[in-house]
Amino acid sequence: MAFAEVGAVVLLSVAFVFDIRYMTIPNRLTVTSFAGGCVYQALAGGWPGLTSAIYGAAVGFFVILLLYGLKAVGAGDVKLFGALGAWVGPSEVWYCAVYAVMIAGVYGIVLLTLRRPFLRRRLAQRPTLPAAWIVLDEETGLPSGRLRFPFMLAVAPAAAALWFL
């Protein structure tokens, strides 16, 4: 595994912990990771390396920005993919985003299935979802019926599939 992938793994590992615990990815993590990826690529590959880092950051940022526009992910995920693209380049961040979206779709189907009435009765004795995944109505503060889950639950296996399979 090259140093760039190690940097990406560290970035994703820290982001995973924050996203699971707090449902947020800190700006200081994404900004420093973006800068670190650009510096590494510039030192390793000169101007072509820096160009690749910036292009990779743009690809990662704008692909996930489309999902942000659909309210499918948060702003931290957009910045995370920008930083990830700086480390791994445009093609790897593209494939990681595509795999993550596919995995998130499977998770979404599973969550919808778990919410079916016949399964809810069976699972009523055991909570199946963390409380942070339940979206509250802004006006009443009561559960809105919508669910959300940390996108890193899809990004981590996508990155593992990309780099280790």
Automatic annotation (TrEMBL):
<keyword id="KW-0812">Transmembrane</keyword>
<dbReference type="GO" id="GO:0006465">
    <property type="term" value="P:signal peptide processing"/>
</dbReference>
<feature type="transmembrane region" description="Helical">
    <location>
        <begin position="93"/>
        <end position="114"/>
    </location>
</feature>
<feature type="transmembrane region" description="Helical">
    <location>
        <begin position="6"/>
        <end position="24"/>
    </location>
</feature>
<keyword id="KW-1133">Transmembrane helix</keyword>
<comment type="similarity">
    <text>Belongs to the peptidase A24 family.</text>
</comment>
<dbReference type="InterPro" id="IPR050882">
    <property type="entry name" value="Prepilin_peptidase/N-MTase"/>
</dbReference>
<dbReference type="InterPro" id="IPR000045">
    <property type="entry name" value="Prepilin_IV_endopep_pep"/>
</dbReference>
<dbReference type="GO" id="GO:0004190">
    <property type="term" value="F:aspartic-type endopeptidase activity"/>
</dbReference>
<keyword id="KW-0472">Membrane</keyword>
<feature type="transmembrane region" description="Helical">
    <location>
        <begin position="53"/>
        <end position="73"/>
    </location>
</feature>
<protein>
    <submittedName>
        <fullName>Peptidase A24</fullName>
    </submittedName>
</protein>
<dbReference type="Pfam" id="PF01478">
    <property type="entry name" value="Peptidase_A24"/>
</dbReference>
<dbReference type="GO" id="GO:0005886">
    <property type="term" value="C:plasma membrane"/>
</dbReference>
<feature type="domain" description="Prepilin type IV endopeptidase peptidase">
    <location>
        <begin position="9"/>
        <end position="109"/>
    </location>
</feature>
